[in-house]
Request: fold
Amino acid sequence: MLKIQTLPLQGDCKEVLKTLDDNSIDLIVTSPPYADQRKSTYGGIHPDRYVEWFLPISAELKRVLKPTGTFILNIKERVQKGERHTYVLELILAMREQGWLWTEEFIWHKKNSYPGKWPNRFRDSWERLLQFNKQRKFNMYQEEVMVPIGDWANKRLKNLSTTDKVRDNSKVGSGFGKRVSNWVGRDKVYPTNVLHMATETGNKRHSAAFPKHLPEWFIKLFTQEGDWVLDPFMGSGTTNRVAQRLRRNSIGIEILPEYFERVKEEIKPVFEMQPAQSALLEEKANYATTESK
Ligand SMILES: C[S@@+](CC[C@H](N)C(=O)[O-])C[C@H]1O[C@@H](n2cnc3c(N)ncnc32)[C@H](O)[C@@H]1O
Reply:
């Protein structure tokens, strides 16, 4: 029987994080309040002060993350006075100064973005998912997020050219190369760094909840059963709910008592799962994932 802990904590994560052990977390996945944007709901940070506000928090996150761990930060710069504010770019540079490696940037393509008309831009249908690490070698379980190879295989792999059968090095000297014939006979491939997911519309308890497939994808990619996941801006606890279902321990920190209380009421702090029960849960979740695509 696998025993999984889920610990919601209440308070300002800048302070609460200090109570967590050094090098104890395998994955941090979070969406902090965006600069000023949702002030009416849970307090915004002025774009000009965003970096200054976030750096003490990211210093704590760096301390609690294991050397093999990963930090995924969902963020998007807002428009101010007709142009994109640069606080996200400044934050990346400041976090690099703080000792983080900016390993990768995933794009969350919001498939269901709301139609609209603006005089000088189109509707915003993507957000950044920045990946930071403490070192170049970190845990990554790529096989867990493979996707069906799809129609591409039928068309592309039917008639292989001579180049397809050898390693074809990039013509622009990037050092990258590909051998197309490697994919013959396979039914799954590695995904791209663009995640196509609809925004959450069913969660009436929080105005900015993650779609559950978003933390799910990163939890599968960067952790194993029994590992520890942290969301320092827990909100309605999406990350923690998914972590528990995937049999990962988790901690969530939330400043607003009403959100914290709800999560505390709804998620069991200790979850003991029989292997058969967990297999059933996984099957249900996979069915839901397929249905929503
Ligand atoms: C964008 S929401 C996160 C939503 C969450 N991903 C979900 O799926 O429900 C950000 C959350 O961070 C909380 N928050 C804001 N400042 C905080 C702080 N300093 N420490 C902890 N939580 C904070 C807000 O109350 C809000 O619920």
Notes: The CA atoms of residues 232 and 253 lie 5 Å apart. The chain has two domains: 2-146+190-292, 148-189. Confidence is low (pLDDT under 50) at residues 288-293. The pocket of S-adenosylmethionine is lined by residues 12-14, 31-33, 42, 206, 208-210, 233, 235-236, 238, 253-256, 259 (CB under 6 Å).
